[in-house]
Automatic annotation (TrEMBL):
Protein name: N5-carboxyaminoimidazole ribonucleotide synthase
Claim: ATP-binding is one of the keywords in the record: yes
Organism this protein belongs to: Caldicellulosiruptor owensensis (strain ATCC 700167 / DSM 13100 / OL)
Gene that encodes the chain: purK
Keywords: ATP-binding, Decarboxylase, Ligase, Lyase, Nucleotide-binding, Purine biosynthesis
GO biological process: 'de novo' IMP biosynthetic process
Length: 403
């Protein structure tokens, strides 16, 4: 007994010593490179600045949302080898808020010992949605029935069976690169690109789970959330947290989401999108290796936001609490359908008069139909009341354009 206590005490003191050694930092704490300067990059940079990091962002636009909150901005596209090398070499740790990046350059840098998280090898799998699905299937994780498109004539789709969903293997984003083929009459919609098809799942709800994992393999998941999509653009329109589902289903969803991130050997925060079928089965839809639209509610509603959690994970700091403090609803503010130009916000004062409303505007200089311009989070002790408030805000708050 004495020997066991001695060993435990020795190990505990060793771990504590190691953690204390890693608890002393200069200022800035570290230089964080963020590839991508959109809204996710901006919110990540804002949290990084709050925590004492130095931020270097890379984006094609000198007026990108992250420009106003970064210490340095490298203006470049995401495939320029020299500029990618520049941001990685200038940074202690590099991450990204967008998937469409030159992974060949990043893999070479990663192999040379530069800290890039999630790793470019993880990103390379996620960039190809067919490889992503294949990996999950090989790991015995639940996915819809799917098959690589080998030829684009009608016989292939007929053999697979209608209805089905065709998805571009690469390049799809915010609903682009996805078509539903219900029958032969829809074959004129077929994407002329490398792709795969999967069964059209009979869905009860679309769910998502944010999962954080650091380099040590520590993992934490956030509550399961419920997503409703804007049908014409297939962009997340409305999010309910926590999801209105049975706790057993929620537990299963969290377990699957954690296994997904572990299968990828992921480091950082990941948005895992899931289907809940009519038979209460959980199936994996797809994964984002970064902060995600379905995690925005965590800024106001959870102890640790997804952005802080991502920084903790990639810097190998202790992961924060994922406890949800209040029921929440999040709505995306999309550019109105018939408006394009400099944004004009309608209904802001009236919306902010509703108790529990938090308004986020991304600072994009131009609006366009269905472009993500901001989001609103609504907190209330009663989830149903929060939903009613969100519906009211959705009617009032509009992003139009100056005449």
């Amino acid at each position: 007994m004495f020997f066991e206590e001695f060993v435990v005490n020795y190990i505990w003191k060793g771990e504590m010593k190691r953690d204390m050694h890693h608890s002393t930092f200069g200022f800035p704490i570290k230089k964080i490179g963020i590839i991508g300067g959109g809204q996710l990059g901006k919110m990540l940079a804002q949290k990084a600045k709050q925590m004492g990091f130095y931020v270097i962002s890379l984006d094609p636009s000198p007026e990108c949302p992250a420009a106003s909150v970064s210490d340095e901005l490298i203006v470049s596209d995401f495939y320029n080898p020299e500029k990618l090398k520049e941001i990685v070499r200038k940074s202690d740790i590099t991450t990204y808020e967008i998937e469409h990046i030159n992974t060949a350059v990043l893999k070479d840098l990663y192999d040379k010992g530069y800290h890039i998280y999630p790793s470019p090898y993880c990103l390379e799998i996620i960039q190809d949605k067919f490889k992503q699905k294949q990996m999950f299937k090989n790991a015995n994780l639940p996915v819809p029935r799917f098959e690589k498109v080998t030829h684009l004539d009608a016989s292939f789709f007929e053999k697979f069976g209608f209805p089905c969903v065709q998805k571009a293997s690469k390049g799809g984003y915010d609903g682009r690169g996805v078509v539903v083929i219900k029958d032969k009459e829809d074959l004129n919609k077929v994407l002329q690109t490398e792709s795969f098809v999967e069964e059209l799942v009979d869905i009860k709800k679309e769910l998502a789970v944010m999962v954080a994992r650091n380099k040590r393999g520590d993992v934490k998941s956030y509550p399961v959330v419920e997503m409703v999509f804007e049908q014409s653009a297939n962009i997340l329109d409305f999010l309910v947290a926590p999801a209105r589902i049975d706790e057993k289903i929620a537990q299963r969803a969290r377990e699957v989401a954690i296994k997904v991130v572990e299968a990828l050997d992921g480091v950082g925060v990941f948005g895992v999108e899931l289907f809940l079928t009519k038979d209460d089965e959980i199936l994996i839809n797809e994964v984002a290796p970064r902060p995600h639209n379905s995690g925005h509610y965590t800024i106001e509603a959870c102890v640790t936001s997804q952005f802080e959690q991502h920084l903790r994970a990639i810097c190998d700091l202790p992961l924060g609490s994922t406890k949800q403090l209040s029921p929440a609803v999040m709505i995306n503010l999309l550019g109105e359908k018939d408006y394009k130009g400099r944004p004009k916000i309608e209904g802001l004062a009236e919306s902010l008069s509703i108790e529990g409303v938090s308004f986020h505007f991304y600072g994009k200089k131009m609006t366009a139909p269905f472009r993500k311009m901001g989001h609103v989070t609504i907190l209330d002790d009663d989830l149903e009341v929060a939903i009613e408030k969100a519906k009211k805000v959705k009617k009032i708050l509009k992003i139009k354009a100056e005449v």
